[in-house]
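Issue: copy button drops trailing tokens. Both records pasted manually instead:
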Amino acid sequence: MICPNCDQNSAHIEKTTQSLKVFGKEEYILIQDIPVTKCDSCHETLFDAQVVKQLDEYRKNPNLAEEKPIRVARFPKVA
């Protein structure tokens, strides 16, 4: 697949997990198995229009996500 960012034939579709901050709140949603296009050359990550629409729906209505307790670790500051 040709990457629209660098024009190299090194883009592929994979699934990733990302956190999404709910605007105006101290709340995050962890979204798993997001289909993205990633380029092995320039490392660009691209979302198609349907994925962006679904991410916006989760942002607008976080109650669409299942609520689960999770452990949170903060990476220590490096001197």
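Record 2 (pasted manually too):
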Amino acid sequence: MLRMNGMYLYDRRCAGEEKNMETKNLSESTICCFGDSTTWGDNGCGGGGNNISWTSHLGALLGGATVENFGIKGSRIAVKADRTDSFVERLDGIDHAADICIVFGGVNDFSRNVPLGEPGSTDVHEFYGALDYLIRTITARSPQAKLVFMTPCKTSGKHEKDIPASNEANHLGLTQDAYVRAMLEVCDRYSVPVIDLYAQSGISPFLPEHRELYMPDGLHYSPAGYERLAHRIAAALTAVCR
């Protein structure tokens, strides 16, 4: 009810009667998973696919949710001249009718030397600016969707492909945690929930036992690794999307 000039007015939005204002349980939700090779399901051994990705387990873990995989191998958050499949450039192709949108990327921006930029940037060729653009654009198109970001997991690098480990500097002199901090900062600015897999994925490429079981190339996950990651994501998503 709204009160105006001493009279109470009926507000459909407050009463929850508009269809698009309804709150769905996670089990009834459609979840758009927007990511790179770790969402696509690369197994680190030249194969893989959506069928082994963490996304393939997520629906069952959430009680029957519909999960859509929009992962592209090598995709970066920001625009760079050598490719045309950044998250920014692919934004038109994801499901903007989904109830939840998960954005999971950033490791390729770090490893392929995307400029970090500065807080407040709106330049989509910089990491800060591209993050800002994604949040504002997804929200403008799907204002009632629950938007969640996930920080990129640690990797042990692949030096033969000029890919630094998370704790090593890229060609810009930045380690991966600089990109993680930028994501946390931009999401904090817009009050977007973040699942911090960089800090709390439960899988470390720096532990030989974990690498053997879960991360065969130190970058991507085995089927067992993706399943383990899915459990961590499902638990965190349940907490932030209540």
